[in-house]
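This section describes the prediction task in plain terms. A model, or a person checking by hand, is given the sequence of a single protein chain and must write out its three-dimensional structure as a string of tokens. No templates, partner chains or ligands are provided. The sample shown here is typical of the held-out split.
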Amino acid sequence: MVPRLFDVSAYGTNWRDCIREDFWFIVMTVKGMKMKQKSQTRQTGGAKAIKDIRRATRKQYSAEEKIRIVLDGLRGEESIAELCRREGIAQSIYYKWSKEFLEAGKRRLAGDTARAASTGEVTALRREARDLKEVVAEQTLELRLLKKSMIGDGGDDA
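The expected answer:
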């Protein structure tokens, strides 16, 4: 016995519902296709351009500004919400900076990390190393000359 596609008893008395349901069942099984929703993550060209502009023009905070904001929050003179509103940042950003600040302080006190030298310090240290190398070279040259003069003289006259 072949099953009937249009089994009206399953749908009640409305035969149009029966045909509509069976039609989509046939389409899906014959073509083996699954119905998919379009992804909502695709952006139009304009929306993508706006997002790129906002990302490019976003304010970048320097390390000094982040430290100042975190220290203001740690002082507790005003609430974190008020501080973030005044500075124009999200509270999650403040708490992220605060966590990084405290962890870096803990590592520094534990002596786990060496402080990175600034460009000026590196330049000064390189200059000092060069000067010291020149002094060593001059001292070595003078020592060689003294040794040669001692050998040429035949040793000590004492």
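For orientation: The chain has a mean pLDDT of 79.
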